Predict the structure of Phosphate transport system permease protein.
Amino acid sequence: MSSNSSHQELLDSRPQGLDLGPTGRGGDRLFSGLARGSGVAVIALVVFVAAFLLWLAVPALKDNQASFLFSRIWQPGLTPPKFGIVDLLWTTVLASAFALLLAVPVALGVALFLTHYAPARLARPITYVVDLLAAVPSIIFGLWGITELAPKLAPVGNFLSRHNLGIPFLKPGIPDTGTVFVAGVVLAIMILPIIAAFTREVFAQTPAENREAALALGATKWEMIRLTVLPYGRSGMVSAAMLGLGRALGETIAIMIILSTPSPGAPFSASLFAGGETFASKIANNAAEFDSPSKTGAYIAAGLVLFVLTFAVNALARLVLLHTGRKHS
């Protein structure tokens, strides 16, 4: 009897509006179903895009008479077609990696300054300005890069190419105004707000107990950041960098405006101070050639490689995060 009375008192003491009955469980099931459906829909969309690219690329790849991965020839209009992507792959990876190399240290510095050094009244407006960089259209970056930035970076490029210390990436390239060097700097500015925003949020979530414990043990501010903030935000930093890299790999309009297209038959140059084309700019520049299945299939095959490359970058990021998590667990 006392047990029944206690149970009734517990039910009567529930907060008003809290439903533990079948209706509440039905709501949980509905929410769970919607969440699972959203996840399945995203996976299905990715699979559909991959299948679409593969379906249209395979016939052109079968007819291709050149090495797709190692040839520099790009003549999909021939019968049979001949096309290879080695130049596109190299330019895409080089420009994106150079942009990431420039953007990540600056983004980390901005995130640390805004979260641990700048006073609140100064950090707030700087945060708004940095975030606004992400809202600038790509075409604006491209126009600014080729008209204003490229002439000002030309002396820097000439100096680095003359004092290259034998580094292949810094050797003088074919004289061009729109070089991979300029494109990489513009890409770095474009991905900077993305990396800084994500890293800033991760740094701000560092437990106060960890920071206060480090300071209480006599650590300086930099030692506190090195021992608590950076290890806590390591996974977030890697994720932000990979997100920025994905943005750089797929950038189209700005790169199409900036990069000088090499003339047919021009010698290949692996230098930052040469022109070239990325996957995205190549496809955008030649969209008018999509007038036959073989030509269209060649460009779609190039897009498929970019699709796979982006997936490989994200998979590598997940492996790094998994290794980091095991190492520090």
